[in-house]
Request: fold
Amino acid sequence: MDDHHHGPAKGLSRWLFTTNHKDIGTMYLWFSFSMFFLGGFFAMIIRAELFQPGMQLIEPAFFNQMTTLHGLIMVFGAIMPSFVGLANWMIPLMIGAPDMALPRMNNWSFWILPPAFLLLASTLFMEGGAPAAGWTFYAPLSTTYAAPSVTYFIFCIHVLGLSSIMGSINIIATVMNMRAPGMTYMKMPLFVWTWLITAFLLVAVMPVLAGAVTMMLMDVHFGTSFFSAAGGGDPVLFQHIFWFFGHPEVYIIILPAFGVVSQIIPAFSRKRLFGYDSMVYATASIAFLSFIVWAHHMYTVGMPIAGELFFMYATMLIAVPTGVKVFNWISTMWRGALSFETPMLFSIGFLVLFTIGGFTGLMLSIAPADFQYHDSYFVVAHFHYVMVAGAVFSMTAAIYFWLPKWCGRMYNETMGKTHFWISFVGFNLAFFPQHFVGLAGMPRRIPDYALQFADFNMMSSIGAFVYGASQLLFLYNVVATIVAGEQVSDEKVWDGAEGLEWTLPTPVPYHTFETPPLVR
Amino acid sequence: MGFKAKQLCKLALGPVLLFMSVSAMAAGGEASSMNMTPGVTELGREIYDLHMIILWICVAIGVAVFGVMFYSIIFHRKSRGVTPATFHESTTVEIAWTVVPFFILIAMAVPATTTLLTLYDTDDAELDILITGYQWKWKYEYLNEEGENVSFFSNLRTPQAEIYNDESKGEYYLLEVDEPLVLPVNTKVRFLVTANDVIHSWWVPALAVKRDAIPGFINETWARPTEQGIYRGQCSELCGKSHGFMPIVVNVVSKEQYGQWIAAKQTEASEVKQLTSQDFTLDELMVRGESVYDTSCLACHGGKGEGGVGNAIAGSPVATGDVNAHLEIGINGVPGTSMQAFGGQLSDVDMAAVITYQRNAFGNNMGDSLQPVDVYNYKKG
Reply:
């Protein structure tokens, strides 16, 4: 029975061959953290160029490579893997399972990621440069008119898709089969629920993205004309396929974030989550609706009016379950006993800013008005409120919340709160003015702009630098905590925290729940 | 280029106040630097009203929701020694906040639907204009004017020196073109929008028009400007390197001025036809060729022919090789690369001039020249 209690292997092989969900989760988190800094570095280059009108630092062609890589790396390299990492760490702990259901596949789904991103980053040094058609890579700009590096990009997307699909299958199998006795579906923590639904979304749409890039590959190398009208194809077909993946994708990013704040807000309100059942149903409704709204990204492509109306009504409907979630979180806080440690601050920051992003989303859903908003900075502002203040803020909250549990050391609270306030101010300074320039007529993805947009762009750049710099403080805090943070040994690191993970010793041992706990 | 102190103060006062000041500014009617323009069309004003209604509904909901939240944050703090309540569900409340938003959405959907129907109604247009997006310029063709066909390209006029900060930037930096689209006032104009290479999008905020220009397909949209004036817009779909450098300028003039303008353009078109049969000296071709080069070639091949997206012209085997091979590339482009076919974009005179220019500038002293008639004959085969 000795091998049941062995610790981690030594050296590099521990990480290379590990099948331990905690090790794999840790690797996912560090990998996504490093991608967050790489994508952030590209964002800093973009904002530096946009600091003033005129071309100062980089050339327009390189600017397009930067916006493209920034988007791809943040979406596929930073946000998605970070939540997969969190799922790896937390789902087994939350449902009382000893590990993930498919540990060897788990190892694979992580280890194919770094080579894929190495490949993507290497396109920067190729002749013709990196892909430059935006993270949405619309054909034919991304096919006939693309640099040769597009082939490497396609391969990278295939590998990422493979990784996501394996990761999702693993999560589905784990949640369905490995719950502790008594842990019924409607007793699962909301984070587990949101990830289960997210995993189904991933399994459904990643193959669609793979199909889209395969069709691109065919168009580029094998003489087909899927996306070229000259050969009987249709460039708009690409957009339909892309957004059939792309819209569920944004919920893939945000649903786990919903799950995280649904764990943290009750903990620091010292009060049970309000409306658990309706939270589950709202999540499922959002997931369902996400499949029938894709063309609201394409109001200006010239769809028939019937299609336009359908997608407008369906999109507006999303406001209902999303509203339910926001109301539930606020009702959870209502008459609780609130305290404002860093995870709670980031969760409240999420709540406020995500709701603003939701409002602009509702505005964007109104098709006739979208003819003015579409492809302007208003859209850029909208999705950064949802992606950064939504997904990234909640991920940050999650790290502060669970890091003490993972490593048995407490982060520096003052530094954490400082990180929050600098992030909050920097973020809003960066992205709030973008609503204004967008409404006033500034298109997105331009390397230079007319003079009337200058003041707000300068503000935006300063805000972006502040937000970017505050992440270095975060990195420092995390490293300092792991290396030399104050030791904690309480099982419940936070007095209001509920759930199976808080019944384990702190720090969490290498192997947990070898005998399943009994859930009442 | 510092901050305007006023704007900084506004930012400090928070989002809600900002939106209020936005609407106050926009109520004045002039184009705002912070809000959507109502523009100069009936449809534009309708869209603007819709935008403001939805915005205010969102602000109202936001004030209510955040009000409750901040009340909780202030009064339900652990540090005030409160005991947390234990309630965690209420079917009544949950039904209410599912159903009420639903009705708010219906209230929004009604005006949105009517406006959308108007936006799609391209019937009874008095003038048709075909807009074609090219990397990186727009082509306008007036389809149903009698007489000579009027069509022209509209290129960015801002000099490279301003973009690269060697000269101070003019008032309409990046929003100025060599030849604007001219429209008659109070006339329903139907725009047929397409593209030659990649997807572009034709956006003029003041006309409330944005339509994707898709190669191989033609989209329809329309506008009926009710005020004379110059309105500016930009390409709004990423279309490659110079996506940010293909602005749109629309000059809305009186119907009389429009009539005179179209007549002048028709005369000009027939003159260019006549020029094709004339012979030019090398110097004449070089002067004309330089200006054609600057608008059509420079973006890719560089101001000194040093290359960039495109190959270098200086010392290139094409520009110093067989003149017909050179002309072939100019007319038909190089398929599968960003070198476009310019045969349909440049007149025979301009094509002859620019080929001659490339062969005799940037240190390429070939000494040979092309005449328009050579281009004409080459195209004929």
